[in-house]
Hints:
The complex is a heterodimer of chains A (285) and B (324).
Chain A (H helix, E strand, L loop, with lengths): L1 H31 L6 H19 L7 H18 L9 H23 L12 E4 L2 E4 H23 L1 H11 L1 H6 L4 H24 L9 H15 L4 H22 L4 H15 L10
Antiparallel strand pairs in A: 1-2
Chain B lengths: L1 H23 L4 H26 L7 H17 L7 H20 L4 H21 L1 H4 L5 E2 L17 H24 L1 H11 L1 H6 L4 H27 L1 E2 L1 H5 L1 H14 L6 H20 L5 H16 L7 H12 L1
Helix pairs in contact in B: 2-7, 2-10, 2-12, 2-13, 3-4, 3-10, 4-10, 7-8, 7-10, 8-10, 12-13, 12-14, 13-14
Amino acid sequence: MELLLQVITNSILLGFVYVLVALGLSLIFGILHIVNFSHGALLILGGYMTYVFWKLIGGWPYAAIIPAMLVLTVVGVVLYYVYLRFIPPQEGLRQILGLVGFNMVLENVILMVFGPGTVSISSQLAFYRLGFININSKYLTAAILSVILVAVTFLILYRTSLGAKIRAVADNPTAAGIVGINVTKIYFIALCIGFLLTGAAGGVISTYYAVTPTGGIPFVILAFTIVVLGGLGNLLGTVIGAFIISFVQNFTSVYLAPELEFVMLFIIFLAIVVARPQGLIGGKA
Amino acid sequence: MNRNKGFLMGAAIALVLSVVLPVVFRSDNYVLDLLISILIWTVVSQSWSLLAGIGGMWSLGHIAFFGFGAYTTALFAIHGVPAVLGLPAGAAVSALVALALGFFICRLSGHYFTLVTFVFTLGAGVLFRYFDDFTGGDYGLIVPLKLSPSGILNLSWDSQMAYYILAWVITVFCTLVIWLIVRSGFGLKLAAIREDSRSARAVGIDVFRVRLITFCIGAALASLAGSVYVSYYKLIEPNTAFGLSAALNPVIFSIAGGVGHIFGGLVGSAILLPLSSFLNMFATTLPGIDRAVYGLIMMLLILFLPKGVLGIRQALSQSKRKQA
Lengths: 285, 324
């Protein structure tokens, strides 16, 4: 019973973090129709940048996430305007392969600069007791930060006129252009939001997980599974998918075996892609 | 007719070079080593190109089948089974895995196919690392160098030239298989599916079956390359078999040479592997530089030369026709 409650608590806390990890990916696909295959290396860059700024500025490690988010946004926007923009959008596979190439470049540049070892942001680890359960303070902080960022993103998207424009462009860029929305500007803003979130996710990860140059792979598997589970580009689906994956992962790891985590993820991924490629919720593909 | 002529000319050039070069450089270990690796990666790239260029199935998981072949052969060699049996056994294992996976994913189109194969490879790497009793975990498997019987049975020789001949035989076999497929009615069906799967279905082609069979054949061919790899290098580890950058090798080589062109993989490997070997010299002082440059080359190729080196002439004649 205690163990069960403990696993549920951890699943919920990590679920919030996973939402953040997958949200940038989902948003960029939903609005720009780009499957960001460099999401993994970008997450890791976010982690390393957080580490760098924390070393530079010192103080509260979580504050270092903010400049890291800005660096990520610059990298992402440059990537789009210098490279991706020149590949015709209907050639999705070329886009994917170009991004895979970029992932390789970024991963190895990080390796060249920081070396192959792990970096971790040390902060006090404490456990808060709540009845039977122990709450890991790092998970708790990561979850709270994730909730704030995700909430702000959803508020912008669903409660502001800018959000309405973004959703309009995601729905139908031609029609949005006809009614006077500046589509190019909206693409730019959407890119910024997407990469800000990716940077934040990388930063949050680095506060509880030691990052290495190739450490993005487990998170990229996770993010793709979540996004496919929820339906590519469906933001609400992404939130639900993140929690499902978090529960499956934690329960598999505790009750079956940690090494089976990825087998379970892959089975779920395959089942969803084959049976319901449009995702669990949502109508048409 | 024209296609045949092109193939025969390319084959003639490749055959002459592949016989002359090793004879000329027979005492140069470095060049022979390079030539062997070119042949191994040619097989992987060509079989990838069969899926992607001819079948329209852009897999990012092809390297996993190379890995299955390599691990099967290594396990055979370690446990005293003649390593040469690893060639058919690895191919069978790969084809079976491809059959099981393909049963689910050969129905998928575009993005989804690529996504699943991508996750499949990364997942296979995670699995092979965890079951370390069986696979040696992170360190992989090392095939012990037995002093006793060298020869075809153990795929173990004293001279590099023997390995070159093995790699050459496998490459020629693979090229012929792919050429026969492309020329056959089956190959035409495959090309029809790539161009427009809905129309292909409308004229009565069993799209799913054709793609599934191609997927299995491609997997089996890649597995042969894995067996050759492990017999030569005597080592296989998860980064080579299931790593992200390894997974990209056949993709980059094929694109550099020309996707869908039967000699695309060969040309791409022959250009990029010497470059990679050159870049490797800097990797000892600055690890990662080689892969970073590689990634950059891939990005540039995708942007400026999506049809590869062998596609240059075609692209030029097309732009001329447009102007006229």
